[in-house]
Amino acid sequence: MQSAGLMQSIDWFPFWLSLRVACISTLASLIIGLWLAYLLANRTFRGKELVDAAAALPLVLPPTVLGYYLLVAVGRESAFGRLYEWAFGQPLVFTWQAAVVASMLHAIPLLVKSARAAFESVDRTFEMAARNLGASEWRVFWRITLPLARRSVFAAGVLAFARSLGDFGATIMIAGNIPGRTQTVAVAIYDAVESGNGSLARSLVLAISALSIAILYLANRIERRKQAA
Amino acid sequence: MIEARIRKRFPPGPESAGFLLDVEFQAGPGVSVLFGPSGSGKTLTLSSIAGFVKPDAGRIQLDGQILYDADSRVCLRPQSRSCGYVFQNYALFPHMSLRENLTFAAVRHARLERYRAVSEMLDRFELGPVSGRRPHEVSGGEQQRCSIARALIGNPRLLLLDEPARGLDLPLRAGLYRVLRQVRAEYQIPILLVTHDLDECFELGDRMLVLREGCLVQTGTPSTIRERPASIEVARLLGLTNLFRVEIVALDPGRDQSRLRFEGFELSAAYLPGHLIGDKVWVSIPAEELRVTSGTRPGPNQASARLVRACQRSQSVRLEFEGELSVDVPRAEFEKQKHNKEWLIEFPAAALRVIEGGVTNENTR
Fold first, then answer.
1. How many C-beta atoms surround the C-beta of residue B137 within 10 A?
2. Are the beta carbons of B104 and A132 separated by less than 8 Å?
3. Is the same domain home to B194 and B136?
4. From CA B332, how far away is CA B354, in angstroms rounded?
5. How many whole angstroms separate alpha carbon A147 and alpha carbon A141?
6. Into how many domains does chain B fold?
7. Which of B43, B79, B83, B159 best tests the A interface by mutation, with the highest count of A CBs <10 A?
8. Residue range(s) defining the domain that contains residue B73
9. What is the pLDDT of residues A8-52, one digit of tens each?
10. Are residue B249 and residue B358 in the same domain, yes or no?
């Protein structure tokens, strides 16, 4: 009885919020990440390697540094922040949408790296053949390159989702820690430990660990099946 | 009608020697074979025409439409060149069935007509029963027919084939030649076929373009090129046997005779028009036109030689003598003579072919 009461008292909002943030962040990252990866894999332009390095930067910078950059870039005083406020009637910072932006910053580098490698591993003669048969670049990408690289891209998407689920540093800096509004799992766990709420911390930790293991297992299986095929 | 003048330079790099492709040719309906050794620029020529590679200079024109012109900076995308291309490994999309491969290529057909056009093409190339399968689930011959069908379904004005018979066993090769002859009969378009297989040139070629080190060295029908190679290099590329440099010591137009000297003995041959006494020319002697007998004392037009080795071939036996002289004899003939101790080689007067252009070529070397 006691444990049931304990379970009821746990607020699962951070868990669901993290899932929602991760889903939206993954979808948005896929669009931007695949586009960037396609450019890097297929086009030659000046500063290409610089773009590649910049895309990988969030993997190595401290999350707080990223959060600071984000605050500068999308804060209320910035051009983007003003535009967002004008368009949606509220500032971006300290909303759960800001957590999405923070997560994307971690998901996009993973996607760009893996997707570029996946696109480059597609045999160029297939793309040449498609162009020769009159297919536009758009059609070549959707019908040839992406389907042939689909397993690696899907696995990269799953990893990006897992990474989006657990962001802490950048999230707390631009989305803040507002319970019931912007408090994601990672932030909630930190909050719970700080305030001595051990059972809440334990529950969230176990839940997020189980989910992450399941996701990584899935990603590995997809990769393995690719090798078998 | 394809008219091409292509020039493309690859500067020498740390790991590769430089390469310069410089070719100019025209080809009408029928099969034109681009023949040459590996690295002679055959595939590069096809890629330039298809638009995968941009030449440095020149002009490519197909049925009057300019595909590439360096002077006016025209360079059409591969998508708008309407050149069918059959890749060496076929490049069938592995994630699509054969029907889907053809449908993908049928974009220029009206939507409602597409299904019928694809079905028709599948039937024409005998792919109907396997049309639902993926490329890796069908035989090599079917993959090959599918790649040709896919290249043709958009009604191209030119068909380019990059070594389609490479790595195929003999029955598949025969099948491919049958299909290509059918294509040549049904489509009145130029077909450019890249190969380094000589038999393929004779099997399929209406015309032959011989490439060497990025340059066209001779064009003409395969039989003309074989009979009259333009230079000693072409003769070597064609695998002609018994290439010798001889000196003309006597010419007698009245009796249609000439005498040639090489390596210490003299031979009679037919009269050689257009040459002077003292000229040195290259001659080739087809290995199958020489005869061998046993004996020690050479008669007229005979020479004694020492056998180095006898190579068994599928149809005949090739006898290799000292001085790089080869003679092909039928198997039965070899069985009769294989215990010869001394060999005499007889040169029939008609067997000697002078390689015109051999003279000038020697001087420029």
1. 12
2. no
3. yes
4. 30
5. 8
6. 2
7. B79
8. 2-232
9. 567 888 889 999 999 999 999 999 999 999 999 888 888 888 888
10. yes
User: Chain B partners of A130 at a C-beta cutoff of 8 Å?
Assistant: 93, 104
Domain count, chain A: 1
Residue B79 and residue B221 in one domain: yes
Is residue B238 a part of any domain in this protein? Answer: no
Residue A133 has pLDDT above 80, yes or no: yes
Q: Which residue matches tokens 């039937």?
A: B123
Whether residue A109 is contained in a domain is answered as yes
Contacts of A147 in chain B (CB under 8 A): 95
Closest CA to B307 of B339, B335, B267: B339
pLDDT in tens, A170-212: 888 888 888 888 888 899 999 899 998 888 899 889 999 999 8
The domain of A152 spans: 22-61+99-228
Q: What pLDDT is stored for residue B96 in this prediction? A: 94
Torsion region of B256: left, alpha or beta (phi above 0 gives left; psi -120 to 50 gives alpha):
left
pLDDT in the model for residue A226: 60
End residue of a domain, out of B203, B232, B261 = B232
B162 with B81, same domain? Answer: yes
At residue A4 the predicted structure's pLDDT band, cuts being 50, 70 and 90, is very low
Q: Distance from B93 to chain A by nearest Cα, in Å?
A: 7
Shortest distance between the Cα of B147 and any Cα of chain A, in A, equals: 10
Could you tell me the CATH number of the domain that includes residue A222? 1.10.3720.10
Which chain A residue has the Cα nearest residue B92?
Answer: A126
**Token pair belonging to A182:** 């912007």
**Which residues from B are below 8 Å from A when comparing CB atoms?**
50-52, 77-85, 87, 89, 91, 93-95, 104-105, 107-108, 150-151, 154
Question: How high is the pLDDT of residue A146?
Answer: 93
Same structural domain, B186 and B247:
no
Q: Which residues of B touch A121 (CB under 8 A)?
A: none
Distance from CA of A144 to the nearest CA of B (A): 8
* Size of the A and B interface in Cβ pairs below 8 Å: 55
Let me know whether B207 and B262 are in one domain.
no
The string of pLDDT tens digits covering residues B176-187 is 999 999 999 999
Residue type, B160: L
| Position A59 pLDDT exceeds 60 | yes
| Pair (B122, B257) in one structural domain | no
Q: Please name the residue of chain A whose CA is at the shortest distance from the CA of residue B50.
A: A132
B183 Cβ partners below 8 Å, 6+ apart?
Answer: B148, B152, B159, B191
Which residue positions in chain B have pLDDT lower than 50?
A: 358-365
Chain A CB contacts of B94 under 8 Å are: 126, 148
Q: Write out the DSSP string of B67-136.
A: EEETTTTEE--GGGS-EEEE-TT----TTS-HHHHHHHHGGGS-HHHHHHHHHHHHHHTT-GGGTTS-GG
Q: Shortest CB distance from A133 goes to which of B52, B94, B150?
A: B150
Domain final residue, candidates B186, B208, B232: B232
Minimum distance, in Å, between the CA of residue A132 and any CA atom of chain B = 5
Residue B365 has a pLDDT of 35
